[in-house]
Fold this protein.
Amino acid sequence: MKKIQELALAMINYDNGDPKRIQHTTKVHAYASLIGIGEGLDEDTQFILESAALVHDIALVMQKPSMLTI
């Protein structure tokens, strides 16, 4: 799970320069969190779901690898 956390943090850093991207990522994370809570996911699965929400746009970063630092 440490790698998931590192990747999520890298995506957050990538988003920092673009207010629209930050807003989009924040909304996706919030929706994922609410869905997980509604489904009664255990803590580890909830963490994975929320982390996945943060990195769901990873393809954008892969187009600019210099922006991703882990």
Summary: The CA atoms of residues 4 and 51 lie 7 Å apart. The two ends are 14 Å apart (CA to CA).
